[in-house]
Automatic annotation (TrEMBL):
<dbReference type="InterPro" id="IPR002912">
    <property type="entry name" value="ACT_dom"/>
</dbReference>
<feature type="binding site">
    <location>
        <begin position="10"/>
        <end position="17"/>
    </location>
    <ligand>
        <name>NADP(+)</name>
    </ligand>
</feature>
<feature type="binding site">
    <location>
        <position position="107"/>
    </location>
    <ligand>
        <name>NADPH</name>
    </ligand>
</feature>
<keyword id="KW-0791">Threonine biosynthesis</keyword>
<dbReference type="InterPro" id="IPR016204">
    <property type="entry name" value="HDH"/>
</dbReference>
<keyword id="KW-0486">Methionine biosynthesis</keyword>
<comment type="pathway">
    <text>Amino-acid biosynthesis; L-methionine biosynthesis via de novo pathway; L-homoserine from L-aspartate: step 3/3.</text>
</comment>
<dbReference type="GO" id="GO:0009086">
    <property type="term" value="P:methionine biosynthetic process"/>
</dbReference>
<dbReference type="Pfam" id="PF03447">
    <property type="entry name" value="NAD_binding_3"/>
</dbReference>
<feature type="binding site">
    <location>
        <position position="192"/>
    </location>
    <ligand>
        <name>L-homoserine</name>
    </ligand>
</feature>
<dbReference type="GO" id="GO:0050661">
    <property type="term" value="F:NADP binding"/>
</dbReference>
<protein>
    <recommendedName>
        <fullName>Homoserine dehydrogenase</fullName>
        <ecNumber>1.1.1.3</ecNumber>
    </recommendedName>
</protein>
<keyword id="KW-0028">Amino-acid biosynthesis</keyword>
<dbReference type="GO" id="GO:0009088">
    <property type="term" value="P:threonine biosynthetic process"/>
</dbReference>
<feature type="active site" description="Proton donor">
    <location>
        <position position="207"/>
    </location>
</feature>
<keyword id="KW-0521">NADP</keyword>
<dbReference type="Pfam" id="PF01842">
    <property type="entry name" value="ACT"/>
</dbReference>
Length: 440
């Protein structure tokens, strides 16, 4: 009988416990897929006494994930510790240096150290599998690496963080504020006590860095990503988006441009008729624009124990086959060091919401500043102030009102230049809201 693949799991949180439960009930199917049995032989976690719903005595316990990685009885280490450095990095480095296969769900680790770890895995002839690191149960890594060699990809974009998508969905559908939705997301376990990593876009950026490398055959370059979060989005912005035929999503976007690979994470207006606009709640989605398949959208659960564990188990089954593939679709020495496309050169449509004083000449001054920056306006909408205009026969109260501009294609630099002039001229009462538009 073929010798089992002996697996050690470092980290027994929601995902790690789900991996063990899935392997218990799907062991035969996983063995058929991998060509040999898979056996969990070792585990490591912070709290040995915690009840995880199964008998821990079946496995060899290690207090240290690094010691688990050193065990001669482990062939494949599943790293679910988390974090870009520290124990997670040492565990993976140790396992690979000892010619052990590694499966990980750690996007922060890969975004920061992916190239180094890929070289180490290649040198040892072992697998470093990471399907679970991006978009939970959606097989986006396998799709990019294995299913699309006949395609030249021009753009990839997606909803890669369920917390942000949940918050924006609730804000839009129920008219709630960001703070109200965040509090509810924390209560339901969708957001951490410190939500900064999610809501300010950094989690999405780590995932985008991985997808960009796979899509374009480039070295991971997380530092090249422009990042904005969703904390500044208001119910008014969501209502205006609906009125204009859009929906606001936090997107990670990677695109080939004339100046290089553009990578950006920010709130984005997408047409309400688009596939990605229909994705609500904690669900994730990734759209790939390519020359042969044209547009391909994958939608599914982006987080959660079972969904992420499903991707981990799929990687374990692949490791069991013995088929070692390049991490990013090509050997590391063939990955390009892509030119960075600076955000200032980004070109596209923009939604600009200005809080202006309701008095004569303000709208004309704004339009003039835009024209001087070579920005063409598709539409201008003004939301009247609710303050009674008792002293002005023309209905102007002098109180702040919202002036919403939709531009035709313009550069980031020209938008910023125009807004700086508008601010210097004293035409606005608050900092402007700028949201980029991603058209199909």
């Amino acid at each position: 009988m073929t010798r089992p693949l002996r697996v050690g799991i470092a980290g027994l949180g929601t995902v790690g416990a789900s991996v063990i439960r899935i392997l218990d009930r799907q062991n035969e199917a996983v063995a058929q897929r991998g060509g040999r049995p898979v056996e969990v032989v070792a585990i490591s976690a912070r709290d040995r006494a915690k009840d995880r719903g199964f008998d821990l005595s079946r496995f060899t316990w290690f207090d240290s994930p690094v010691e688990l990685a050193r065990s001669a009885n482990v062939d494949c280490v599943v790293e679910l510790v988390g974090g870009a450095d520290g124990t997670a990095l040492e565990t993976v480095r140790t396992a690979l240096s000892l010619s052990k296969h590694v499966v990980t769900a750690n996007k922060a680790l890969l975004a920061k150290h992916g190239l180094e770890l890929a070289k180490l895995a290649e040198g040892k002839g072992v697998s470093l599998a990471f399907e679970a690191s991006v978009a939970g149960g959606i097989p986006i890594i396998k799709t990019l690496r294995e299913a699309l060699p006949a395609n030249r990809i021009s753009r990839l974009y997606g909803i890669l963080n369920g917390t942000c998508n949940y918050i924006l969905s609730r804000m839009e559908l129920e008219g709630l504020t960001f703070a109200e939705c965040l509090k509810d997301a924390q209560r339901l376990g969708y957001a951490e006590a410190d939500p900064t990593f999610d809501v300010e876009g950094f989690d999405t950026a780590h995932k985008l860095a991985i997808l960009t490398s796979l899509a374009f055959g480039t070295e991971i370059d997380a530092d090249a990503i422009y990042v904005e979060g969703i904390s500044s989005i208001t119910p008014l912005d969501l209502a205006m988006a609906k009125e204009l035929g859009f929906r606001i999503k936090l997107l990670g976007v990677a695109e080939r441009t004339k100046t290089g690979i553009e990578q950006r994470v920010h709130p984005t207006m997408v047409p309400r008729t688009s596939s990605i606009a229909q994705v609500m709640g904690v669900t994730n989605a990734v759209t790939i624009d390519a020359d042969a398949v044209r547009e391909l959208t994958l939608i599914g659960p982006g987080a959660g124990g079972d969904a992420t564990a499903s991707a981990v188990v799929a990687d374990i089954a692949d490791v069991a086959t013995g088929n070692v593939q390049p991490l990013f679709g090509a050997p590391t020495d063939q990955l390009e060091k892509a030119a960075r496309a600076p955000m200032q050169r980004h070109e596209g449509g923009y939604y600009v919401r200005l809080t202006v004083h309701d008095r004569p000449g303000v709208a004309a001054g704004v339009a003039t500043s835009m024209a001087e920056a070579d920005i063409s306006l598709e539409s201008i909408l003004q939301k009247r102030s609710e303050v009674a205009a008792t002293q002005d026969p023309h209905g102007r109260s002098g109180a702040p009102v919202s002036l919403v501009l939709i531009t035709y294609a313009a550069t980031e630099a020209s938008i910023r230049s125009a807004l700086e002039k508008i601010s210097r001229d004293g035409l606005i009462a608050e900092p402007p809201q700028v949201i980029r538009i991603e058209r199909e």
